[in-house]
Amino acid sequence: MFRTFLIFCFITLLSLQLTGCLGSKDTPSGPSAAGQVNAALASGKPVLLDFGADGCPSCVQMKPTIYRIITEYNDKLQVVMVDTSVDRELSADYKVRAIPTYVFVAPDGSEAGRQMGFIDSNIFIDYVESFIKQHSPITAAN
């Protein structure tokens, strides 16, 4: 009976590791999100941090809007997508308590706004446009 229990535990842990549920800081899939955030902040542009996860239905629903923003506002705004299941430390640094969370960071590095949860595409894009106008280095110089 005990041996069966140990085998079950081993198989469960192996399954969790293979599906990525346990995560691993030793095997990053590319540049760390913290490095991407630092690079975005160094650009001198306003930054949108998108904290979410693949298993979050609202995050998945917002992805087309985020991709549209990345495409249409690439010259005015840096967007960094942060997977909260992988980048837990960065999520904690930005005090993310629910997903999706969108943190708007001014070029000076200060948080300029925050939105949480699913947001209608048009409303969210209006908010992004307003954020860009308020924090664009070009309009700030005029």
Describe this structure in words.
There is one protein chain. With 142 residues, this protein is an alpha+beta fold. It has a single domain, classed as Glutaredoxin, CATH 3.40.30.10. It has six helices and four strands. It has helices at residues 2-19, 33-42, 57-72, 88-93, 121-135, 137-141, and strands at residues 47-52, 78-83, 101-105, 111-116. The chain has a four-stranded mixed sheet, sandwiched between helices. Strand 3 (101-105) and strand 4 (111-116) form a beta hairpin. The radius of gyration is 19 Å and the shape is globular. Residues 14-29 have low confidence and may be disordered.
Descriptive terms for the model:
Glutaredoxin; 4-stranded mixed sheet; 4 strands; alpha+beta; 142 residues
Name of the CATH homologous superfamily: Glutaredoxin
End-to-end Cα distance: 76 Å
Number of strands: 4
Strand-residue proportion: 15-25%
Write out the strand line-up for the largest beta sheet, numbering strands in chain order. 2-1-3-4
CATH class assignment: Alpha Beta
* Helix fraction by DSSP (H/I, runs of at least 4): 40-55%
Discrete helix count: 6
Write down the overall mean pLDDT: 82
Element-level helix/strand string: HHEHEHEEHH
Domain module count: 1
Question: Which structural class do the helices and strands define?
Answer: alpha+beta
Note the topology.
Layout (H helix, E strand, L loop, with lengths): L1 H18 L13 H10 L4 E6 L4 H16 L5 E6 L4 H6 L7 E5 L5 E6 L4 H15 L1 H5 L1
Parallel strand pairs: 1-2
Antiparallel strand pairs: 1-3, 3-4
